[in-house]
Amino acid sequence: MSCIGTGRLGVAFCLAALVPLIGPAAAAEPTVQELLAAQDRALVNSMVAWEETFFTLPSDVKLDETLREAAVQLASEHLARSRTLWPEWMAQERAASGDANLQGGTLSRPLFLHAINELAIWSLENGGPAQDDAWLKAALAPMACSSLPRPYFARRIAMIQAAPLDARPALLAGERDLLSRWGTKRQSLPTRPAAADLEAADQAITLLRAGLPITAVPMTPFLADRLFDRKRKPDPSDRWEQCAKSQWWLASQLADGKVDRSEALTLWRYSTMFDVNELIPDSVEPSAGTSRLAAGKPAYPLAATYFSVEGVTTVQVDTDALGNLLKARVVSRKLTVPGVRDNPPVAFETLLDAASLDLAAKPGQLAKKSTGFKFDAVWRLEE
Length: 383
Known about the structure:
It contains 13 helices and 5 strands.
């Protein structure tokens, strides 16, 4: 039996080689084809059950009845369509492997990763100008970050609840359109913003803490209290803080007027996107990961190991004339993830970044004493 847990979301599903129960009065033993078809049905049912956990609306999420009904209908339509997508994805995996009878974890794992990537694409993709305008209203609404439930669909619906009523039709229509794209090859996903842009809000907060002036709108008192509480340790997994900080920075960019609205919204989407780290089971322990890098490399990152991410990250290194490290940043990635083929692996594309940047400071890496150069960090999991 193969089980996949989803950690902090408190969800897990198990895939077993299920054999249909044949009663004593059965006329004949099931054929191999019938047994395989039964296994496929069991796998599809397990996958749909797992996906349903992302499309639930907890009763404690405060929604008006009209919006709740519309959201339930959206989720129902999507899950019904998903039931037809899973067999298609299974056929794709079997074709890619060359094994028409591929079963078990070898089949279920890439399907799992494929679906996770679809969730991430959904959180990043735009549905056109009308939906972008509506999402700007939702993202900037005063109560946009007040309710961030664990199921990601519920989180998006809660933001729609916070949006002005005149934006709701466009938001719901946009959600229906985006969900209808699952399983298709996207032609124009928004490019990941540069690291400097993604870090700009934190840099601005650092300057504020140092008493230096910045160009930004005032923070809400609650956000300011949290960010400037010197006794409080930052928590990267704090969804509320990340949402509120991203909202503040979006408002600051739009008020400044120097950033294009669509670029500002893309930055907000990446800053608040679905986080795959929420899916790592609490029971998964760090191990001494291995890669085909030089001795002294950092351990293979836990999340990258869990999600079987491999590939190459290219790091740009800037040094002074003596070869001392001034700055390092990832400038490109060529990654592979099982099951992810037609679209970029956006859910997983940064999981090797931190370990790759750590390599820039390793002894001997900067021996060139160049003022700037690039190197490739090649990451391969052992068989």
